[in-house]
Specification:
Length: about 350
């Protein structure tokens, strides 16, 4: 059994590092109470550790696969968890993510401190994610290059659909208001909930992923159908074809986000904390996709698309204000889809290039 003092120190460390690896998630996680909040925070940090290994653009694929396998073992084995930071010493990434990787043993300690049913749920779905990551790392040893829409959906399932599944099982485990009927409705949509958010993240970071992580997720076949390809994804000479290919994924994201909204409104109104956790990333995704629909900045070298900080704050306030009214949430989403939800906000995407 873990030392209570060590667990307290690890929890303090986890809460301190969380904003550095995801500011948005650090806001949302505050709404989840007790063991549920701890479980989701721990699962998120474990996922970010795996992502850091996967995203290293310089490391050999075989070494990445070995590290992903070792991390899978570390989820159950304290000795393997303690050894993992040294094994992963050569992984490169942002300073916050490398700090997380160097203290991955703390995240695993927190995992072992969870009640057994909760720990099993987290381990099952993190391990499923690791399985998929390893598959794609080995499939594309010189950098991920998605070939078809079907392969794109498979990738999104592994890195994000699994998160939706895990969260939904945790809701059932910890929220008395989520009975079997509510759970069944959520389960039908939980993969899409995660995958919708992932698609928006992929679209806004097309240039970043290609330039900094040597990864291209827009399928080669979709680009070829529009007269382009992975080698010309950021080429000004192919901008029209690239935008046409990306437009089909923007359409896909709209459909998936609407399915994700159905997931949100099927959460019982009494599950206020869980609704609060889910509503913010969904609203931010709608706003980001609105801006992506109006710009090609993500297809220019160095380009990116971000909603304004002002809109982030206003959406947080508005989302929490109408949290328990499905009708008001639907009206808010309709408003966000059409124009920025912030006083004096720009009418075009906030883009840098």
């Amino acid at each position: 059994m873990a030392n209570p003092g060590a667990v307290r120190d690890a929890r303090r460390w986890a809460r301190g590092i969380l904003p550095g690896v995801s500011r948005t998630f650090a806001i949302s996680i505050r709404f989840l109470p007790g063991t549920l909040g701890d479980a989701v925070m721990i699962a998120y940090l474990l996922d970010r550790i795996a992502d850091t290994v996967e995203d290293d653009g310089a490391m050999r694929a075989a070494q990445k696969a070995e590290l992903l396998d070792a991390f899978s073992v570390a989820l159950d084995d304290a000795a393997a968890a303690d050894a993992f930071p040294k094994l992963a010493a050569d992984v490169a990434g942002s300073s916050a993510h490398i700090e997380l990787l160097r203290r991955s043993d703390m995240a695993c300690l927190l995992l072992r401190s969870l009640p057994e049913p909760t720990r099993r749920i987290v381990v099952q779905w993190v391990r499923e994610m690791l399985t998929g990551m390893k598959k794609f790392v080995l499939l594309y040893p010189t950098g991920i290059r998605i070939q078809t829409v079907a392969e794109y959906r498979e990738y999104c399932y592994y890195v994000a659909g699994t998160v939706g599944c895990m969260l939904t099982e945790l809701w059932r485990e910890h929220a008395p208001s989520i009975g079997e009927r509510a759970y069944a409705g959520l389960w039908e949509r939980c993969k899409t909930f995660g995958e919708a958010l992932q698609t928006v993240n992929i679209l806004k970071d097309i240039a970043w992923d290609a330039e900094h992580e040597n990864a291209i997720y827009i399928p080669a076949r979709s680009l070829a159908d529009n007269g382009s390809g992975h080698d010309t994804l950021l080429s000004p000479a192919h901008v029209e074809g690239n935008r046409a290919a990306v437009a089909s994924f923007i359409d896909l994201a709209w459909r998936d986000l609407d399915e994700a909204f159905e997931y949100l409104v099927r959460l019982p109104r009494r599950a206020v904390a869980i609704r609060a956790f889910c509503v913010l990333p969904l609203l931010y995704a709608y706003a980001t996709l609105r801006d992506l629909s109006a710009t090609g900045a993500m297809l220019r070298p160095g380009g990116s698309v971000k909603i304004s900080r002002s809109e982030v704050r206003w959406l947080m306030a508005a989302g929490l204000l109408v949290l328990c009214s499905n009708r008001a949430l639907a009206l808010l989403v309709r408003r966000v889809r059409s124009r920025p939800f912030a006083p004096f906000a720009p009418t075009r995407a906030s883009a840098t290039a």
